[in-house]
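Need residues for this backbone.
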């Protein structure tokens, strides 16, 4: 049980690094053709960039199915749950809170506001920070002015 929990937590944490690297070196380079929709005003409920979370969800589900099909697949199951939990947190913070895909959704939590400001910096200048939970410069974030109700 402890091994399962450790793998799950490590997998969740590793996804922040995977997310950062994918965002910086794949989304903003090779697959900019899809990701640029995220940096443009959305005209409907979806954007081409939404294909990325679909890909990660499919990968997580495939890992989970493989793990459940194997009687000894507990480590893979723990990894798939960690990846899936990260995806859920990412969706909650990025899509619901930051980009307000549900307009009435608003929270007044300082940690989330800092993440929102860091993401606004990314959208304003197109560079760092590429990560969601980590990798933001607190000095730049604190200096950046954004109204709490602003969507990025």
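Answer:
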């Amino acid at each position: 049980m402890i091994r399962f929990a450790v793998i799950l937590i490590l997998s969740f944490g590793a996804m922040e690094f995977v997310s950062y690297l994918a965002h910086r070196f794949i989304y903003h380079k090779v697959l900019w053709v899809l990701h640029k929709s995220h940096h443009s005003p959305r005209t409907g409920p979806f954007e081409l960039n939404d294909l990325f979370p679909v890909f990660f969800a499919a990968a997580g589900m495939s890992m989970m199915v493989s793990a459940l099909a194997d009687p000894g697949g507990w480590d893979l199951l723990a990894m798939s749950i960690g990846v899936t939990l990260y995806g859920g947190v990412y969706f909650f913070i990025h899509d619901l809170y930051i980009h307000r895909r549900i307009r009435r959704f608003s929270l007044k939590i300082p940690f989330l506001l800092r993440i929102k400001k860091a993401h606004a910096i990314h959208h304003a200048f197109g560079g760092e920070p590429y990560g969601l939970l980590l990798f933001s410069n607190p000095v730049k974030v604190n200096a950046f002015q954004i109204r709490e109700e602003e969507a990025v």
